[in-house]
From TrEMBL:
InterPro entries: Adenosine_kinase, Ta1353-like_sf. It comes from the Bacteria. SUPFAM superfamilies: Ta1353-like. The lineage of its organism: Bacteria, Pseudomonadati, Pseudomonadota, Betaproteobacteria, Burkholderiales. This is Adenosine monophosphate-protein transferase. Pfam families: Adenosine_kin.
Length: 161
């Protein structure tokens, strides 16, 4: 077995969701969850088929985002993994519960815009995602002024009243 780190390649502020599911039906069901939750959403979706033709299946509403999701899914190469890349102005928080509610979805590894590395194990059978390195390690513990800044930010962007 070999351990690899696969960096996610994307523009700096682009959000994405990386997960695992268990059935080819995932592609259509995730697509429906995305457009049904946020009308007009721009996204690209790629799913690594684990048996049969073993293709990277894809869908979405934006050709460039579909291509970006497909390139990253191919680089990871883990069976039954999926990647959803979101367009500018769309955020995981708005679709994550709908994605998790899709019956084929087994887990979400991350939902982020941070620089990300995917930790992959490769065996003679194939690849598996062991986890992700999402962003960077902490530099300290928040002080009272940091708590106030966090609370003010959430209210300023409309996520808390």
């Amino acid at each position: 077995m070999e351990l690899l780190t696969v960096p996610i390649s994307k523009p700096e502020a682009t959000n994405f969701i990386l997960g695992q599911s268990h059935f080819i039906k995932t592609v259509e069901d995730l697509h429906e969850a995305m457009v049904g939750t946020v009308p007009g959403i721009k996204f690209g979706l790629a799913f690594c088929e684990a048996s049969g033709k073993r293709l990277v299946r894809r869908s979405g509403t934006d050709a460039d985002l579909i291509e970006l999701a497909s390139r990253n899914a191919s680089a990871i190469g883990a069976g039954h993994s999926f990647m959803i890349v979101l367009g500018d102005g769309f955020f995981p928080v708005n679709v994550l519960n709908a994605i998790k509610a899709v019956p084929e979805v087994c887990r979400i590894f991350c939902a982020t815009a941070n620089p990300t590395q995917v930790v992959v194990a490769e065996t003679d059978q194939g690849r598996a995602i062991l986890g992700v390195v999402d962003g960077f390690g902490p530099l300290g513990v928040e002080a009272e002024e940091d708590v106030q800044w966090r609370k003010d930010l959430l209210r300023a962007i409309g996520y808390k009243a």
